[in-house]
Amino acid sequence: MTGRSSNRGRLSRSAEFERVYRQGRSTGNKYLVLYAFANPSATGPRLGLSVSRKVGGAVERNRVKRLLREGFAKFEPELDPTHDVVVVARPTALDLAEREGLAGLEASLGELIDKAGLRSGSRISAEEQG
Question: Which of 8, 37, 95, 112 is least surrounded by CB atoms within 10 angstroms?
Fold first, then answer.
C-alpha cells in the first residue's frame, strides 16, 4: 500500500464525476466502462468508481470496488498523470470478479486503458510486471 492520503488520487465530488462524464471520452467492454478526461492541473491520475446496486449488494459492490482500485494501482505508474478516470462497473463485473478475481478485472481494466490511450512512457505488459 502506498503512503498517500486518502483523497489524493481519487475523485470524490459529484461535480468531478459529472465533468468526466460530460466532457471526457468513454470506452467500454462487457464488464466495465472507462471515462477519461484530461486535467492538466493534476499531479497524477485520479480514479473515480461507480458501482451501482445492479452489480449486487453492498458486500459484492465493495469487493468489486476494492479489486478495481487494486487493479488501477498496478497500472498507475504507466498512466498519463494528467487524466481523471471514472470506471463504471457493469452488472457482469461481479461475475468476472467471482470467476477470475483480481486478474480478470485487471485484464478488463488494462484493455480499456489501452483502448483509451492512457499509457504514457514505457509500455509494460501485465505479464512483464509479474
Answer: 8
CATH topology of domain 14-119: Ribosomal Protein S5; domain 2 (3.30.230)
For 35-83, what is each residue's pLDDT tens digit?
999 988 888 899 999 999 999 999 999 999 999 999 999 999 999 889 9
One-letter amino acid identity for 125?
Answer: S
The distance from CA 18 to its chain's CA centroid, rounded to whole angstroms, is 16
CB 49 within 8 A of CB 68: yes
Query: Which of 64, 83, 68 has the alpha carbon at shortest distance from 23?
Result: 83
Task: Give me the sign of the Cα torsion angle 16, 19, 24, 29.
Answer: positive
Name the residue ranges covered by the structural domains of the chain.
14-119
Instruction: Give exposure, 71-109, as e/b (b: 16+ Cβ within 10 Å).
Output: bbebbeebbbeebbbbbbbbeebbebbeeeeeebbbebb
